[in-house]
Design a protein that fits this description.
With about 290 residues, this protein is α/β, with parallel strands linked by helices. It is built from 10 helices and 8 strands. The chain starts with a helix and ends with a helix.
Length: about 290
């Protein structure tokens, strides 16, 4: 009987979670669009499609997107001379790989990067990119359902704010708009515990002309992270930009991918899992 109970504890977590695919959402403007990066600078294992990471992407307001409900994670770039080979990548390539390895099971990555987009307009609930983002979620959800799996929204990663900085009205309203965005997206995805990781907006090209707007946006991001335990911030202030002083280099985007992953609040193994593993170890010990 003891052996039967222990075996059940081992198998239960696997059976319970086998049909759940955690969803990770990447959204933002041109840096999320993969501009100024080159896939040739990625580690070899990330240059090719990753068959164990589901992927739905939309770039440049839907000009570039995957066929069907999903494909597999791979370098993708919008309509921009991002590199000599014309193929860029975003932080999702690194973060998605790290998350899949963490969960030891497939995950789903949904990405929307549209250059010059703003939280105040394009990404406001009901805005064009907000609605497109929701549509991508439902496409992925349908794809997972067809496989007999359930998509579970987990974390949203944001690179968005530069184009709000340059409009004094949008900059002053950024905190209100971001709170509204977070609240509405949690509601629309039926995910009240949806987590957010925000790359703190940094835009050296703006200079003194937009220093006030930049500070308003950064303060808004900090305030929301301080008041919501499910919101985290990463800094990219120390990372290099390309020659345009707007878009991150390939090395910087890879590092942002690592920082996104490190800031993700991923669950530790459940107590049932740990107990099951303990029983398994005990059974092996007794057999010896």
């Amino acid at each position: 009987m003891q052996k039967l109970i222990c075996l059940s504890l081992i198998l239960l977590p696997l059976a319970t979670h086998a049909a759940v695919v955690n969803g990770f959402y990447f959204m933002g403007a041109s840096n999320m669009n993969s501009r100024r990066t080159s896939a040739s600078q990625l580690p070899p294992n990330l240059q090719s499609p990753q068959p164990d990471v589901y992927y739905n992407y939309s770039l440049d307001a839907g000009s570039y997107q995957n066929p069907g409900n999903y494909t597999t994670l791979r370098p993708t770039a919008g309509n921009y001379p991002s590199s000599s080979n014309g193929t860029g990548f975003g932080a999702e390539v690194v973060t998605g790989r790290r998350l899949t390895d963490h969960f030891s099971s497939p995950v789903a990555v949904i990405k929307n990067g549209t250059g010059s987009s703003r939280l105040a307009t394009n990404w406001a609930p009901g805005g064009a990119e907000y609605n497109r983002f929701l549509g991508q979620h439902f496409e992925m959800e349908a794809g997972m359902s067809a496989l007999g799996d359930t998509l579970k929204p987990h974390t949203v990663y944001m690179q968005l704010g530069e184009n709000d900085v340059i409009n004094s009205t949008y900059a002053s309203q950024y905190e209100t708009n971001l709170r509204s965005f977070i609240s509405q997206l949690r509601f629309d995805l039926n995910a009240p515990q949806l987590r957010f990781v925000i790359q703190k907006t940094y835009w050296p090209r703006g200079g003194a002309s937009y220093s006030n707007g930049l500070q308003q946006v950064r303060t808004a991001q900090e305030n929301i992270a301080a008041s919501d335990p499910l919101v985290s911030i990463i800094s990219a202030d120390d990372l290099a930009f390309s020659t345009d002083n707007v878009h991150f280099t390939s090395a910087s985007e890879m590092e942002i991918g690592e920082r996104f992953y490190n800031a993700t609040q991923v669950p530790e193994p459940s107590s049932a899992t740990l107990l099951g593993l303990g029983c398994f170890t005990l059974l092996l010990h007794r057999k010896k």
